[in-house]
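Ticket closed. Logging final result for OLC1v1033668C1.
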Amino acid sequence: MTDGSDEFRLVSPPIDKEGKLPRKYTGEGQGAKKNLSPPLEWYNMPEGTKSLALIVQDLDGGEPDGPMMPWAHWVVINIPPTLKGLPEGFSGKEEDMGGDYAGIKEGNNDWKIPGWSGPMLPPPVHSHGHRFEFKLYALDDQLHLGNKVTKDKVLEAIEGHVLGEAVLMATF
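Final structure:
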């Protein structure tokens, strides 16, 4: 039996134990900072990890008048294994931060724009409780996907290269 202390895991300190994504990381309401990405930390990366890829999606998303389907809010690849997390507001700043952050690439989300886009509930469905999944993949290689990185391209490229997955669930 393992107590889970050595499992590959992903956490975001501001997400409380109820799993609510704080409003400042969303795109709506009072206190929303408009596309401020939340801080993330990870632990117990699998041995042999050469890079990390992150896909964040609203599992209850989709177009307002279309079927419900996972909707990507953030796609990040080539996170070096030397990093133990991404700071708050990281999205869009990898060049400014330099060092190990400089090689990280943010792909396009499902709005077809690069970087983090905070969740907003489409009117008229202001029903909260969307499930928001942060999934971090430990890979045995770097990804070379050219300029246009998307969730689908990443999922295709990592096939056969995943050493481990860490999932953090939140709701908004």
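The chain has two helices and eight strands. No further action required.
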